[in-house]
Structure formats: C-alpha cells, structure tokens
Amino acid sequence: MSETDRVPVDVAVGVLIERDASGREGRFLLTSRPVGKVYAGYWEFPGGKLEQGETVEEALRRELHEELGITIGAVHDWKIELMDYPHARVRLHFCKVFEWSGEFQMREQQAMAWQQLPVQVVPVLPGTIPVLEWFAAERAFAGATHAG
Ligand SMILES: Nc1nc2c([nH]c(=O)n2[C@@H]2O[C@H](COP(=O)(O)OP(=O)(O)OP(=O)(O)O)[C@@H](O)[C@H]2O)c(=O)[nH]1
C-alpha cells in the first residue's frame, strides 16, 4: 500500500438525536451498513465520504437524503476522530442533528434503530464505539455502552 492510500478520507457522520420538551437528549439513530460494503451489517451512525469541493455540512445533507430520504435542519459540529482501518484511514466528522423532516426510507436496504445506552444492536462498527463513550460521559451513564 502506498503512502497516498493512508491519507485520511473525510467522512461526514450524522448523530440524529431526539430531544424532549426541556431539550434533554434522548434516543439516537443507528443504521446498519448495507450489504456489499466493507463491514456490511455493522451498526453505525449514517453518513458518508465528502465529495470533491464539499463541506462536511453539505456532504451530510446529501448523504442523509440519499440514504434515508430525510432533509436535515441545523448541523452542529461535535467531534472529529481519526480511525485507521486495514482498508482505509478516515477522518470522521461527527455532527449532532436535532431536526429533520420527511419519512425515513431505507434507500440502501439498510436497517435503522433508535437506541439508548447501552446499545442493543450488534455488532457495532469500531468507529462508532467512541461516540457511545462520549454519550456516556455527557449523560453520566456508567457501565458497558454496548452489548457483546
Ligand atoms: N457512515 C459512517 N462511517 C463510519 C462510521 N465510523 C466509521 O469508522 N466509518 C467509516 O467511514 C467510512 C465511510 O464510508 P462509507 O462507505 O459509509 O461512505 P460512502 O457511502 O460515501 O461510501 P462509498 O460510496 O464509497 O461506498 C467507512 O470506511 C466506514 O467504515 C460511522 O459511524 N458512520
């Protein structure tokens, strides 16, 4: 593998979160990776790679519309994480999203699940686990963040 293969690819990731009337954050959305992709069947936050010239926000709006059929409202930058996989090096831009419109459609035959800590769906993508830890810290949740 050449050095250029290890240049990180930027990925926009949407953390869709339900909030109650007082603004308290509740369930969050996970989707399973479609058949045919690397890590097929693993659960992750929806998103995808930035196309040339796109900002994180633009990529996130496009990906969530393409994959889930929804139109998202404000995008709140949250955390950035670098992940080294055998197949790729990715820079994940996690953004919180609290508002969206439209019916969810699984346009890539993926599955979706609204989750709380501890996450019940398995297996969870390695790059998703740190997010669950950030949630645990924010929510003062103690214990395992996911099953398995
Ligand atoms: N969407 C998403 N990707 C993640 C997460 N965590 C994580 O490590 N990744 C990695 O980031 C990369 C995202 O690429 P992708 O394959 O989902 O994006 P895409 O739809 O643009 O890909 P493609 O069109 O090339 O198939 C993958 O290598 C994936 O393993 C996550 O929580 N959500």
Automatic annotation (TrEMBL):
Domain Nudix hydrolase: from-to ranges: 8-137
CDD domains in alphabetical order: NUDIX_MutT_NudA_like
Protein's UniProt keywords contain Hydrolase: yes
The reaction(s) this protein catalyses: 8-oxo-GTP + H2O = 8-oxo-GMP + diphosphate + H(+); 8-oxo-dGTP + H2O = 8-oxo-dGMP + diphosphate + H(+)
Any Pfam family the entry gives: NUDIX
UniProt-listed PROSITE patterns: NUDIX, NUDIX_BOX
GO biological process: DNA repair; DNA replication
Enzyme Commission code: 3.6.1.55
First-level EC class: hydrolase
Organism domain of life: Bacteria
InterPro entries xref list: MutT-like (IPR047127), Nudix_hydrolase (IPR020476), NUDIX_hydrolase-like_dom_sf (IPR015797), NUDIX_hydrolase_CS (IPR020084), NUDIX_hydrolase_dom (IPR000086)
Keywords: DNA damage, DNA repair, DNA replication, Hydrolase, Magnesium, Metal-binding, Mutator protein
Keyword set includes Nucleotide-binding: no
Cofactor(s) it depends on: Mg(2+)
A GO molecular-function annotation: 8-oxo-dGDP phosphatase activity
Family: Belongs to the Nudix hydrolase family.
Protein name: 8-oxo-dGTP diphosphatase
